[in-house]
Amino acid sequence: MPDEKSTARRFIEDKIPRGLVIRLFVYVVAGHLFAAFVYLLFTLGAER
C-alpha cells in the first residue's frame, strides 16, 4: 500500500507550477501578436 505522504508529494512534484503555465500562455499570445504585426507590415509593404 503506498504511503499517503509519498503519493501527495509525487502529485505536487509532477504538477506544473501555475505561474509557469500563465507565463507560457502570455508568451505564446504575445509571440503570435508580434508575428501578426510583422505579417501585416509585409502585406502592406508589398502593396506599394
Biggest beta-sheet profile: none
Strand content: under 5%
- What order do the SSEs take from the amino end to the carboxyl end, as H and E? HH
Distance between the termini: 72 Å
SSE map:
Layout: H1 4-14, H2 18-47
Tell me about this structure.
This protein has 48 residues and is mainly α. The chain contains 2 helices and no strands. The protein has a domain at 16-47. The protein has helices spanning 4-14, 18-47. The longest helix is centred in the C-terminal third of the chain and has 30 residues, at 18-47. The mean pLDDT is 86.
Salient structural properties:
48 residues, 85% helix
How is this structure best summarized?
The chain is an all-alpha fold.
